[in-house]
Amino acid sequence: MSTSSHELRALRQEITQQLSQLDARLRDVEEQLSGGGNDARENSHDAGVTQLKLPADSNAQDLWALNELGKRYDQPAVMFAGTAETEGGPVMWQYGRFSEHLKNTDAFAVSPALEAIAHPIRLTLLLAIINGTTTSAKLAELEQVGTSGQVYHHLSQLNAAGWIRSVKRGQWEVPASKIIPLLTIILAAQE
User: Fold this and answer.
1) What is the pTM of this model?
2) CATH architecture of the domain covering 106-191
3) Cys-Cys with 133: which of 14, 16, 58, 128 at CB 3.0–4.6 Å?
4) Where in the chain is the domain with CATH 1.10.10.10?
């Protein structure tokens, strides 16, 4: 029995997602074991202030994600989750960390990944790849991305930061584990 490349890609994405989810769960368990539990209300900033950004057709009782987050953890936490359809198939992702860990992030460690997508041409290339334009030649044909040399430079920057990877010579993909984080950053930037 032969397995198609589409089936292999889907299987690879599923395995990658499962490994990433297990990794995130392991980090959370390690943080719980080493950090102890703090009361979220005692350590929160402006604990009585809540800012809601809900769709127009929502009501205040639609805070199911926050309600579940509060039930699951005994200390402040940040998480994101989402689904997306891509050329390679559906992507589902969730990730979370304790707020205290995030507040103590080494800015120099995360800056390269953020810098890579802060450039409008690189962000344009990332979105084009997610939407199915995956070859260097087709990406170079996009409006406002510059010369093919400039496109290769931007692709190299995205690749070095881990936002894309080479599938084969001249063809790129955004790893499944990066799609929802990228869309989350875009969502946060729109607020």
Assistant:
1) 0.65
2) Orthogonal Bundle (1.10)
3) 128
4) 106-191
